[in-house]
Design a protein that fits this description.
heterodimer, A: 318 residues, mainly alpha, 14 helices, flat, disordered N terminus, disordered C terminus, B: 420 residues, alpha/beta, D-Maltodextrin-Binding Protein, domain 2, 2 domains
């Protein structure tokens, strides 16, 4: 997910100055161009339909059935009753609350830290390559591997962090477990946020900053009055991607607590019901609900905040 | 430059060969001896049993032992995922006894019939055998069983308790005298807590499910079980980390010397002889405490069954291989070398068993009158729901908890339940 995202962000950044000139030239052949565009997109669109559209429709179909691999003979169509079961269940809402909390806290903290990191990476003059590489290392580590090292670090007896703070086992209590999960998430994905924001920083023309400095703007004013407004589209894209990602948090929780002490996220719950419980009906219902939540988040970002998803029309991009 | 490129190319070819060779080896059973893939939990000396069976088969089949992950959940998930995809690369499956009904109901394992069935049943203890049946048909051959005992300190306890009330009473008396008094067992939110509760319910003559395994009943005995569990957890006789303990934690707590009693599997005894020999000299065993003084306890059994995958390409050889792996001779070998108690009764009277299992008479006494966990395809869900509801045991309120469990377990049986 990260590679195309950053590529797209960079691409947008570089392409922008060209687009006006191009627009005039293209207007007459627009129809033909558009048809060609569709044709060129077709293979990718068909592949997307096959690998994403079909599974989504299939889960919706499964979510409308009583379908439990343990009882293959009892398979039947039950309408929306699985949705009633899940939406009236306290485990689901607990997990939903936990997921929301993790999403909001991690995304906010990542935005602040990511911005600082992006500015540092952008402004570094000496050893730019080394600075950028060092900042990106956490993102390069496999999440499960990183999660294991966090787990051992917080386990009394094997870990340095557990002994540092107290003698208790922080991963056996709810509040401290959630804090550790969020810490691990933030540590891991702040570089990704920084990378997206750095692409936005490249959008800020150097002349504009110099002009502002000339007019007597302080560094903070230049940051809030010049850089942030220009970067707004990039910030919104970064927030959108991170929010969608954070909402699906799974691996850190799976390794750190396995959902004990009510630390399950909605993805963990879906996994437990699908893979461990073999209940395709209930599990698919949860997957569909997660999909819908993610869709709503994306809708809110795109329509209300005017975030431009990469590849959307020029008007949206601005 | 040229040379490096050639070296690089040679490297790529070598890497490709390395990747392809194991695949070639996998496909190589078409012509000659069929390979029977045995998927089983890690067991240190099982490979020796496999080698032995391969020698006995004299070319009819060759068993290849594929070691599953150590965690029970991971073992089940791997097998379940592959069986749901109709993977034909698995032949003999090592199932925890509580998975057998689930796999049978899902139509993933073959029924045992005729001669194979007769051989699997011959001399096998009734309790373990019942764990391998589903809807009155046999779906697996019990490979090994297991059962918990009461371990107690002879320097503190003259007469081992026969009921929970007595045990709690004795512990409180020892506490009053300022002596080691704790009763150690597993109380974390996991399968071990369900095993503890199941034993108490069975000893009280209660039922969690009805006899068909299709209805959640939670009768008087089951409520009684909740009362006893709650009383035990809140009587001040457990260790402080009771609600966080699994098997090995319990073993270490007892070895720590603050306890008078321990309810745990037999592995603790050899481990204690190694880890705390002075203490081990003072420790003896007795039958697990019951509920009423007049009725002996019925203790929950554990263990593994061997089943044959429906998608096996060589089912006939797979049945033979499974029978060989669990025959009396090999059960004795595994019992002595890997500490897994046999399911064939006659093995216990073998003179070689006496040295490795000084407690074998008590084990056998419990095994002749045991309790199974609810025999239902939905056991995994039932167990998850039960351990979540029973934890922590001190905050059980019997009638209320029973009502709650009755509802959530009925939901699990009807695929309507949501797992935490």
């Amino acid at each position: 997910m990260s590679a195309p995202t950053t590529a797209a962000a960079k691409h947008r950044a570089e392409e922008k100055p060209l687009s006006k000139a191009e627009k005039a030239r293209l207007s007459e052949g627009k129809r033909a161009e558009r048809r060609l565009g569709w044709l060129l997109c077709a293979p990718a669109a068909i592949v997307m339909l096959g690998v994403a559209g079909y599974p989504i429709l299939y889960s919706v179909w499964l979510s409308l059935q009583r379908y439990d691999l343990k009882f293959p003979d009892d398979r039947e169509f039950v309408g929306l009753s699985n949705y009633v079961t899940v939406l009236s269940n306290q485990y689901w809402w607990t997990a939903f609350g936990v997921t929301m909390l993790i999403t909001v806290v991690t995304v906010v903290v990542e935005l602040v830290l990511g911005m600082a990191l992006a500015v540092i990476m952008h402004r570094t003059l000496v050893g730019r390559g080394i600075v950028r590489t060092a900042a990106l290392i956490p993102y390069g580590i496999v999440t499960v591997v990183a999660a294991f090292s966090w787990r051992y670090a917080w386990t009394p007896g094997t870990g340095y962090l557990a002994n540092l703070f107290s003698d208790s086992a922080p991963l056996t209590e709810r509040a401290s477990s959630l804090a550790i999960i969020m810490l691990a998430e933030i540590w891991k994905t702040t570089p990704f946020m920084a990378l997206l924001l750095m692409a936005g920083l490249a959008l800020v023309p150097e002349d504009l900053l110099k002009a502002a400095a000339m007019d007597g703007a302080t560094a903070w004013q230049r940051f809030t009055k010049v850089m942030l407004p220009v970067m707004k589209p990039a910030i919104l894209v970064a927030l959108l991607f991170r929010t969608l990602d954070a909402f699906r948090v799974f691996d850190n929780i799976y390794v750190l607590t396995a959902g004990a002490n009510e630390t399950s996220s909605v993805s963990m719950l879906a996994y437990n019901n699908l893979i461990k419980g073999l209940n395709l009906g209930i599990g698919s219902t949860m997957s569909v609900l997660i999909f819908l939540t993610v869709a709503i988040i994306a809708f809110v970002f795109v329509k209300l905040f005017g975030t431009a998803a990469p590849g959307s029309s020029d008007e949206g991009r601005r | 430059m040229r040379k490096t490129r050639r070296t690089a190319r040679a490297g790529v070819v070598a890497a490709a060969m390395a990747l392809l060779t194991p695949l070639a080896a996998c496909g190589g059973d078409e012509g000659g001896t069929p390979t029977i893939n045995l998927y089983y939990a890690p067991e240190q000396n099982l490979q020796k049993v496999v080698d032995d069976c391969n020698a006995e088969a004299a070319g009819r089949y060759r068993i290849s032992y594929q070691v599953l992950p150590r965690g029970a959940d991971d073992q089940r998930v791997q097998m379940v995922r592959r069986l749901a995809a109709e993977d034909d690369g698995m032949d003999v499956l090592g199932l925890d006894i509580t998975w057998t009904q689930e796999f049978a109901s899902a139509d993933w394992i073959l029924e045992w019939t005729g001669d194979n069935k007769a051989q699997a049943e011959q001399g096998t203890l009734a309790g373990p055998l019942a764990s391998a049946e589903y809807e009155d048909k046999l779906y697996a051959a019990p490979k090994n069983t297991n059962v918990q005992l009461l371990w107690y300190r002879t320097d503190l306890v003259q007469q081992p308790p026969t009921t929970w009330d007595q045990m709690i009473q004795q512990a409180l008396e020892l506490k009053g005298q300022g002596k080691p008094y704790q009763v150690i067992t597993m109380g974390a939110q996991y399968e071990g807590l369900v095993v503890l509760y199941n034993t108490i319910v069975a000893s009280a003559g209660g039922h969690i499910l009805d006899d068909d395994g299709t209805e959640a009943v939670f009768d008087q005995g089951a409520v009684r079980g909740l009362e006893i569990l709650q009383k035990f957890a809140s009587a001040g006789v457990t260790s402080p980390s009771f609600t966080n303990s699994i098997e090995d934690d319990a073993r270490l707590q007892f070895q720590g010397g603050n306890a008078a009693f321990e309810l745990n599997w037999p592995f603790v005894y050899p481990a204690m002889q190694e880890g705390a020999p002075d203490l081990a000299a003072k420790v003896k065993w007795a039958r697990y405490p019951g509920v009423d003084a007049s009725t002996p306890s019925k203790v929950t059994i554990g263990g593994y069954n061997l089943a044959v995958s429906r998608y096996s390409k060589h089912p006939e050889e797979a049945f033979d291989a499974a029978l060989c792996l669990r025959d009396a001779e090999h059960q004795k070998f595994s019992a002595i070398n890997d500490g897994v108690p046999p399911t064939i009764e006659s093995v216990y009277s073998d003179p070689e068993m006496a040295k490795a299992y000084p407690m074998k008479d008590t084990i056998l006494e419990e095994l002749r009158d045991p309790a199974n966990r609810p025999l239902s395809p939905a056991y995994q869900n039932i167990s998850t729901v039960m351990s979540a509801t029973l934890s922590p045991p001190a905050s059980i309120s019997p009638e209320q908890t029973a009502k709650e469990l009755r509802g959530s377990i009925q939901d699990a049986l009807e695929s309507k339940g949501v797992l935490p």
